[in-house]
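**User:** Hello, beginner here. Are you able to go through the protein record under this note? It all follows right here:
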Amino acid sequence: MQDNTSEFDVIVVGSGGGALAGAYSAAAAGLRTVVLEKTGLFGGTSSYSGGAMWLPGTTVQERAGLGDSTDAARTYLAAVLGDAEKDRQEAFLTTAPVLVDFLERDPHLEFEWRPFPDYYPAPGRVDVGRAINALDLPSEQIGALRERIRPEPGLDRNGEPHPDETLIAGRALIGRLLLALQGTGNADLRTGTAVRSLIIENDRVVGVEALTESGETVRIRATRGVLLAAGGIEGNQDMRSEHGTPGAAAWSMGPRGANTGDLHVAAADAGAAIALTDEAWWCPGVEMPDGSGAFMVCVRGGVLVDADGRRYLNEMQPYDRFGREMLAHGVSRSVPSYLIFDSREGGPVLPAMSIPEASADDHLAAGTWVRADSIEELAAQLGMDADALRSTVERFNDSAATGVDEDFARGEDPYDVFFCPPSENPNRALTALTEAPFYAARIVLSDLGTKGGVRTDTDARVLREDGSAIAGLYAAGNTAASLSGRFYPAPGTPLGTAMVFAYRAAQHMAQADSMLPGAAVTES
């Protein structure tokens, strides 16, 4: 019988920004590292993202003259999160600048600050934002490796490859991390390898059992540890229902066929404590003609109403807060909601940025958008009370004339106007709806991934219910219960926290006392 067992120092399950940062950290320390990606492409949801990393107080912000500091970020994070998990908050804040300095020592890893406001009006906030991004990655630098990176969601969902152009946003981050990882000479990168269970000996996780795309079962052992960083449960409708996670798998922005909670089950079977399984990184989603959801990044115009034709939130607030208000309003009334807009742009142009996009004709044919020559006719098509919808639009138009939204203060926060084009209106976040025909787009509750998972400590070690650590097992990213709890403090929080705690996991595994008894020391 063939022996399908191999051995490394470190196993990393997943290939998003957190997983690859952890893998690179381990490999750069001289540890033989294998990355196991379930699907056929590297990058996970990170490849779909804008690539922002909330890593405050680093030399990147200093180079930009931003005036950011760890102390300011500490004030902000405490104001948003309160006293929850102060030890992990502090570990994150003090490690972020160390991680960035470490990464930037590799020539493949280059970062810059880009404006994108923090999400809450709280002490320590940076109104223009403090998140950083990887520099765009030209095709000639990434070479053939680019075909192994997941493309942006519109292409990926259609089974199309990258266009022959520079990688940007999350794809640039993934490409740069893969190049750096390859450059260590200590990494084995595998796709089509789905981890099914953990190998446990003497109360310690010593490896994984996985199924390859060819149907072969393999056992991979680790002398230092296993890092689980392969997303949440967003793609598994049964698990969402079991754990009371609102929304639907079809509306989530996770890559299709990935992030189905396999590792949550494996970790729970090993005794891990699970928390926050009803939580996600929420966002409104434009319902697509095929029934899926598209991440509505921002709203530039129009007005959102519930099933009764009434407005209930500030449409231009940060997307996680938007999603939470949809939940607070009551799913039966807010899902779906309808973004009402007019023909001001000369045609059916959605006054919002969504990822991916679909044509107006496709939406209208599918009924995910409806069109009418009057607000009353629009209400009739939506099954709403015409007086209620007309009253909502008239009140909104009055607010646009005065420049003051007395109901929801739209346009008063720096985030509200960040995506708005220049305007001669009293408030550029408020533009009246007057140009027929009028449209309504169906808006559902989407997410960028769930944020519930295994409980971890400051070094990303997986914990049991009694608070003790499971030897040899670590977790980061959406496989772990998020540091940010029921908040989304700023752009890049998911990536920033995932990368920091994956790095801390690798540093812990690099310590001599993390080794299996009798394991050989790897020369760095």
The chain has two domains: 5-278+451-514, 287-445. DSSP finds 17 helices and 19 strands in the chain.
